[in-house]
């Protein structure tokens, strides 16, 4: 009986939690216009179809930022996740080249095609799963 109540609660809670975590990233155009945190991604040819992530510089991060959660997403008919990782904030705001290791794979469109991608960078606090700020770095890779 208790397992049934837990399963019913989990079916409601897990999607709600997932939606709450993703909602800040859904308004990408609005987030790019906001004042505050900004990101610069130093993409080079070596990062194409590679497991080496580019350097990402984060400026004006919110107070209390303990770490950065980074994801690479391809947009198109379907959104595809290309991995990412977390990086502890040392105060510099720099995630070094090669710093993302969680199943990261760089942008790799088929030959002769271009695809739209975005690095989604979330500034995370110490005691919450809710990001303090989220920014997108959108680009097209050919």
Give the helix/strand layout.
Layout: H1 2-26, H2 28-33, E1 38-42, E2 55-59, E3 67-75, E4 80-88, E5 94-95, E6 115-124, E7 133-141
Antiparallel strand pairs: 1-2, 2-5, 3-4, 3-6, 6-7
Question: How would you characterize this protein structure?
Answer:
The protein is 22% helix and 35% strand. The protein contains two helices and seven strands; from the N terminus they run ααβββββββ. The chain has a four-stranded antiparallel beta sheet.
Give a summary of the structure in a few sentences.
The protein has 142 residues and is α+β, with helices and mostly antiparallel strands. The protein is built from two helices and seven strands. The chain starts with a helix and ends with a strand.
Features:
142 residues; disordered N terminus; three-stranded antiparallel beta sheet; 2 helices; 35% strand; four-stranded antiparallel beta sheet; alpha+beta
